[in-house]
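Q: For a teaching session next week I want to show students how multiple molecules come together into a single three-dimensional assembly. I've collected the sequence lines for a complex. Could you give me the predicted structure tokens for the whole thing so I can convert them for display?
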Amino acid sequence: MLTSFLKRGAITAVAFAALSTAAFAQVNELKIMAPAAPGGGWDGTARSMQQALTGAGIVKSVQVNNVTGAGGTIGLAQLIGAKGQGDQLMVNGFVMVGAILLNKSPVNLSQTTPIARLTAEAEVIVVPTESPLKTAKDLAEKLKADPAKVTWAGGSAGGTDHILAALFAQAVGADAKKINYIPFSGGGEALAAMLGGRVTAGVSGYGEFEGQIKAGKLRVLAVSSGKRLENAPDAPTLKEQGIDLELLNWRSVVAPPGLSAEQTKALIDTVEKMVKSKEWQEILKARGWDDSYLAGAEFDSFLKNEIERVSKVMHEVGLVK
Amino acid sequence: MDTLLSLLHGFTVAFEPAKLLFCLIGVFLGTAVGVLPGIGPALTVALLLPVTFKLDPGGSLIMFAGIYYGGMYGGSTTAILLNAPGESASLATALEGSKMAKAGRGGPALATSAIGSFVAGLIATIGLAFLAPWLVEVAVKFGPWDYFALMIVAFVTVSATFGDSPLRGLTSLFLGIALGLIGIDKLTGQARLTFGVPELLNGVEVTTLAVGLFAVGEAFYVASKRFRDPEEIIPIKGSLWMTKEDWKRSWAPWLRGTAFGFPIGALPAGGAEVPTFLSYSTEKKLCKYPGEFGKGAIEGVAGPEAANNASAAGTLVPLLTLGLPTSATAAIMLAGFQQYGLNPGPLLFAEKPDLVWGLIASLFIANVMLVILNLPLVGLWVRLLAIPQPWLYAGILVFATMGTLAVNGSPVELTMLFAFGFIGYLMRRYDYPVAPMVVGLILGPMAEAQLRRALQISLGDPMILLENPISATLLGIAFIALVAPFVMKGLNRFKASED
Amino acid sequence: MTNDIRAQGADKPALIVGVLLLVVAFLVGYDAAQQTIVATYGLGPTAMPYVVACGLVILGFSHFVVAFRGGLPKPEAADGKALLWIAAGLVCLIGCIALGGGFVIAIALLFACTARGMGRRAFAVDLAIGFVLGLAIFLAFAKLLTLILPSGPLERLFL
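A: Of course. Below is the structure for the complete assembly, covering every listed component.
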């Protein structure tokens, strides 16, 4: 126990030295916060990063800690409190943008140091196979005629699915405030409502509906990505159908505010090394995540753009006043 | 016949020594982690997912199955021995189970729950193998209105069974429903009753309330009357094993519990709580010794435990046939499937029969292993109660807070645990039943969400509840259950006045 | 202590519960009244709170009636000291976690205080037992499950 004690002390000392001088763009110890309970999506990303970073020998020791609550905004507040600490990352994603607004959170993502976007998943709009709706245009017509009659099944209120439904209504010129969106807990329940023919259309990540789509029980009206999906080449994008809308459910990592340029660079370098590692690529494949690495200034402006877009639509739908 | 052949083939897959080993490891890990309150089977599987990453698909899924079933066995052990129901599905088990344990009948309680789980698991797994494709057709037909009606049935039957004072029972139930309002409203995303505390946005965790009211409240209560009326815990009184009488009183509840658990578990939004509540109230009604309920009636352990396990097998029905993850654990198992590029769903049975039938066969094997592993442990577990009382209760509190700390260790959550513990103490002191509060917290939000979904689909027309045959029937049952006791009482009084 | 109040005709605990229920009902109703966002279709987020608030009001008044008709069951006197010890243990736990003292110390304090409340008179010994127990749990969680329980300076030595 004593040796382990000494070893820990030594590592900590080295880490401190590294931090205080910040001379090399190298991170020896890293804490990754998953702002959700163990077992969820963000937790999965954090633990996969841990696996890749230590597996590829990029960082010696990686710790994952979970801070639960309020759509991740409690974790966010904690991260923002850790000003200037260059050994911390927090996993976040598109959903957090909406949660911040919905929860009237006193802190927001623009207070963090953006590091990189890691993965993204396209959303799909589907209908049961028996549905008379064949294309996104058909759905748009029906929605314009009477928004109340189009019931949407998807995930939590203010989440990615809900926002896509609202943006869709906006893009086709229907009243976004009048959409009849029904949040279900978990993908399973929404899927059951679709299969039972209880709702008009369903929105979710492609992966969640994949089995049913391949089995011919659900028909894809559109995918929300800019390009068609590799594993579903028959499903048209929204843009192809003349609806100017693109949306990805992305996940990213951010760092505490108040970092020096060197500290930021060290973190970006570390994440970039991880993204390029064999270990990370294997995890992406196994988990069915799409690589959408985007770092630095580009990610920064992407993030700003998303925040603006989400905030606008949430006000219009009446989720936020 | 095809099914039988496939199943036999599945057994040849699962009986490979390596697979058996994975299954054993899974069962062991699942039991060990499942014993911790607050860490249910879902979290156990999630945490152990990386461990299985390196195994082949068949092996790792078989290990999952073991962890899943093992986690549920572990959960009932804590509920019975420590009165700390670590997950909502073992709440009903704790009610009678902990009373039995204190009276020296912990052995039979654990045994009836282990064997009941085994019987239920066995029947439900057979159901899974043979009825899945048919059952799932029915299950997806359930709409929000039907779920709402089902919740109402559960509400009515359960509230009829709590305590001898309707006023105190209802007070407890309503406070539970009020607690269920706290947090983000599922349908509009608005915060309710959070008073600006962000930690409250996620709502009150069922395990925090259950562990607080049951385990912490009990510790306070026992300590408060230590001098006047010292509680006596008898580790073993009479037989450590189930007597002939126990068997006689257990077998029917096992079967009835299974009959509740499997079909409701197979419903996409059915869950494990409703069947355990229904089983508990049914057993209380049917019990030949109604006076024993509340003091440790074996039927009250046998039924709900069977229902709990049967519903677990039930959730595999939509998962395997449709790829619908209908519980947290199922969602994690789905992630496990996907990590090998498998997509559960209509095609899985056709594309990967080895895997599916191997999994189903290993569920049988996991069940057998669990009984073999758990029955000898009963003697050991029960001896835990022989620990001197101060250490026993100190240990229970450590155990109770540990689960909360691991999942959400914020001071706010811990303060809630403390507050619920003290409320639990006061409720015991003035003879308010604590269970209805937890029932209210579990069923309240579910019923509200389903009702609102139903009305959203019908654009506000409440007739939708009566127009659909399933919901109309269920509401009819609820109405009869609500009115029948009053009518009976009235008739009796009428008869009495005639005499 | 509750017995002497009987003389005045009303059962004090029942009255207090009644008042508390009305307070909760008020909070639930007030919060619902503050909601600004309504559902476009079907029931809004305020329907259920109002139903619950009404139910609580009825239950509250029923308690007032009960207070004048026999009241709640009369409890025996409680051992206040024992309660205080356990409460102190829980407060220590919460404080220790909130102030960053870490899991092990928090558990040691909880264990020792509870054991004291249940009648043991060996605080130091129990503290040591709790410490070892906490450490064992912490290491088991960290190493076997990769779940990091709340850590203070002490825990960091082992990570």
